[in-house]
Amino acid sequence: MSAFEFSHVPLDTQALQASLQDPASGGYASFEGWVRDLNEGRAVKHLEYEAYEALARKEGQRIVEEAITRFGVRGARCVHRIGDLGLGELAVWVGVAAPHRGEAFAACRHIIDEIKHRVPIWKKEHYTDGDSGWVNCERCAAPTVDGHHSGSEQGHHHDHQPAPLTAPVSPHDSPVPDYSRQIVLASVGVDGQKKIRAARVLVIGAGGLGVPVLSYLAGAGVGVLGVMDSDPLEASNLHRQTLYSLQDVGRPKALLAAERLRALNPDVDVRPYVQRADASTLPTLAAGFDVLVDCSDNFRTRFLVNDVTVTLNKTAVIASVYQYEGQIQVIQPGSACLRCVWPTATRDGLVGNCAEAGVLGPVPGVLGAMQALEVMKVLLGTRSPAENAVVLFDLQTLQTRRLKASRSADCPTHCSGNDLAEAKPTDRGILENGPLIDSLDRARALGLAIIDLRDEQEVTQEPLWVLHRHIPLVRLLDDSSVLDQSTGYLLVCTKGLRSSAAVSTLRERGHGNVYSLVGGIAGLKERSTPR
Amino acid sequence: MTAIHVQYYAILREQAGKSAERIDTSAATAAALYDELATRYAFTLGRSQLRVAVNDEFCEWTTLLSEGCQVVFIPPVAGG
């Protein structure tokens, strides 16, 4: 069973659904695409699907795996029909199982949209008038595609096509973003707006600080906006996190924020990550962004963001609040970083966060708005006064104080070269301790792809219930080039013996990022059986 | 005795019960001043968890104080 497959025969949706059954999933969402009798005004009789299967399968698998990581769902699959299909027949099926419905719906929607845009599948429509024509399936997904059809080579890649900068809005068209109020500023202009659109900004934490940061950056038209937060919305968040609604309590904030921000500005490519920022997730994710905005509520994350920023030569805008006070600092390559100012990493619990110390909603609101402003200054190339300084705000007295800071010769982050300083030993934990992992949840948390090493017969008797690739041991050891060096893998077998041996062999061959499931599938079942 | 303007942030402000004050002290360095105030207000944070800034610039605890200087004691904060 693979994450993305083609089928030449009609799909059995019950069996597909059953393949995602999993005791930890409380929500299941699926999408079915059917053959319709009309396309662009022409009556369709039946149609044929064709794909570059090898290429398409790879891209399809990538999409489903991406969705699993991005939305933190437990399992997902997609199957696409190939060949001749009649009206009403099921052409594509997507299924997602997750602990809660929010992630299930979002991942399902994401998968079908991406499949339509990125996977090279073509269909030949046979019209009732006897005519026929090839149509790129990307056209099915886009609601407002311009006229010419005839299956021309439209790109299969997912290009983000933003709206024009200041398009006039006619009352009959759907409105488009209008940046004229900021473009008119001398410091912005059309060139500045282009810089904002070209930017990729990752916001860590979608809470009191994150909400204004995200709202203003989405409003401003930042090209790609990442939202990283693993927490579900709580009712006690709402007095300061005004992007959300009471009825959303319990849903992941990253997904809620993405929904709201896409509605606020469809021009922005919003990417939600329902993930905790730790040393195994943040460096990889951060590599794809230009600016990191730390809106977290704990020192552990804040120092990690700092260390990743320095290590990857990125820019970060860091802020924090305490009751009526706030601090803000901008870190640029070469400038003072958080550890230049605070060389001893302060432990969480010493100085309170919002839950412990209390906070009035507008306080993070003010600081978050300032972070958004500093991000825009950075994007526009204006020097920020919060660089090589910590700026303090006392919102009780409305006093501001800028304390100059300089790059410290003893800074542990700057001195550690390309190492992630103190983040590693604590956050990588289990990985540092050896090549063993004891649960699939742990593997998922670490972003590992799962490979089932068992042979065909074992797999048939006892299928693995989570998304994985099946590569029998012998085949994997014959050709380990199927392993991508930038991905981590968890190898799984029945009792953990073969996987352990495979890990030793692969590590000797230089694949450092492979792990073995302790006790195998039998061990998992034993541990999950109530005593 | 040296007259100094002191400002407190975050938990120090709570423990001192004020955000700023003018004091006369015999302390010669920032460290000595903090120790004196820590005794007076029962501050719970040690110097290693704080930074001090004199005249709007972060500095070492050994920095000498001068008449009329502005001293800020500040811990990092985590809320968001």
Tell me what the structure shows.
The complex is a heterodimer of chains A (531) and B (80). Chain A has 21 helices and 22 strands. Chain A has three domains: 4-141, Aldehyde Oxidoreductase, domain 3 (Alpha-Beta Complex); 180-424, 3-Layer(aba) Sandwich (Rossmann fold); 429-528, Rhodanese-like domain (Oxidized Rhodanese, domain 1), CATH 3.40.250.10. The radius of gyration of chain A is 25 Å and the shape is globular. Helix content of chain A is 34%, strand content 22%. With 531 residues, chain A is α/β, with parallel strands linked by helices. In chain A, helix 2 packs antiparallel against helix 3 (101-118) and helix 7 runs parallel beside helix 8. By secondary structure, chain B is an alpha+beta fold. Chain B has a single domain, classed as Beta-grasp domain (Ubiquitin-like (UB roll)), CATH 3.10.20.30. Chain B has helices at 11-16, 30-41; strands at 2-8, 20-25, 51-54, 57-59, 70-74. In chain B, strands 2-1-5-3-4 form a five-stranded mixed β-sheet. In chain B, a hairpin with a 2-residue loop joins strand 3 and strand 4 (57-59). The longest helix of chain B is centred in the middle third of the chain and has 12 residues, at 30-41. Chain B is globular.
